[in-house]
Amino acid sequence: MTGFGKEEANVKNKRVSVEIRSLNSKGLDVNTRMPNLYREKELSLRNLLSEKLERGKIDFSINVESSEGIRGTQINKTVIKNYHTQLKSITKELKEKQDDLIGIIMRLPDVMKSEKEEFNEAEWKQILKLTDAAIKNLDAFRGREGKVLENDLRKRIGLILTSLIIVEQNDGARITAIREKIRKAIEELVAKDKVDNNRFEQELIYYIEKLDITEEKVRLKTHCDFFLKTMNEAASGKKLGFISQEIGREINTIGSKVNDASIQKIVVQMKDELEKIKEQLNNVL
Fold this sequence. Notes:
single chain; Four Helix Bundle (Hemerythrin (Met), subunit A); two-stranded antiparallel sheet
């Protein structure tokens, strides 16, 4: 499920910002960006994200800005003084002007020195606190999106159930129409007084049983109710996916058996709603 979480604070003389972005994914894919100073903690950080977030394409970043400007880079006074002494001696010996020696020196090698910053465990603990807060913000974002998703799923299951009611209302007329259609077809082929009504009724019952959708209607209603109940369970995405497959199976069977244009249109609408449900389930843990 998509989401975004961010937390920032001052850590000693730094401004540290932790950001987590999440996109939907069936598995867990974690990408981290952080200063080299903290790279030794990357594995433990990945384990934390895996435990807390469970699933998704996760982009995690730690951004650090020093409140003291550029940290760790200083002027190398010893080298500059040595350059200055030598250049001053050379210019005097050559009787050249000593203009802007400092400008010349600052372009020479090694006049700046970098000090490697050491890892600080106490500082890392503060960053972990920021990470926990960012995860909570991400979960809150996911929660809001999840509520919208839940309402949409309930709405679409409701539309399928409403369509099922319409199917049930039209089903009686469908059976009557089939009976009359078969009777007329037989009467066109055989004289009415030569039809064995008892045999005709037996064959008609057998044929109509093949087209009966009572069991499918009951199972479809049961599956939809089970879907709504399962939505209240934690980490129910896969289970909802299985139930949606069963819902689709019953809808398809109804569509293949009804042999009625008006009900077929309703079945198409039910299939359309189910496809939207399946798309949304890709975002459910």
